[in-house]
Design a protein that fits this description.
- There is one protein chain.
- It is built from three helices and no strands.
- The two termini are 26 Å apart.
- It is mainly α.
- The chain has one domain.
- 5% of the residues are buried.
- The protein is extended and about 50 Å long.
- 39% of the residues lie in helices and 0% in strands.
Length: 95
């Protein structure tokens, strides 16, 4: 899951020179949501979000995954939550 959080944080900002996206990042980029605004003739569809994803957003993703997997454990489909001991990326003070 750490790789997932790192890949999410790499969505939208440019990658360092000559660096190729990881397989996980490539898959995340493929499934990003498109804008519901119809493109003009000759225009390509636009993505809903173009800003980098913040550590705060990743923390929210972690909370949703944690909650969903806790439900799966309670419903006895898993013995334990695989991300229960994981920590999302730390939120750095702006600087």
């Amino acid at each position: 899951m750490i790789g997932l959080y790192e890949a999410i944080l790499q969505i939208n900002p440019p990658l360092p020179h000559a660096e190729k996206p990881s397989e996980l990042l490539r898959r995340l980029l493929e499934v990003r949501a498109y804008s519901t605004r119809p493109p003009k003739p000759g225009e390509r569809p636009r993505r809903k979000q173009t800003e980098p994803i913040s550590p705060t957003r990743v923390k929210k993703v972690h909370a949703v995954l944690l909650s969903a997997l806790n439900w799966v454990v309670k419903s006895k489909r898993l013995r334990e939550n695989p991300i229960e001991q994981m920590q999302p990326p730390r939120i750095r003070d702006g600087g």
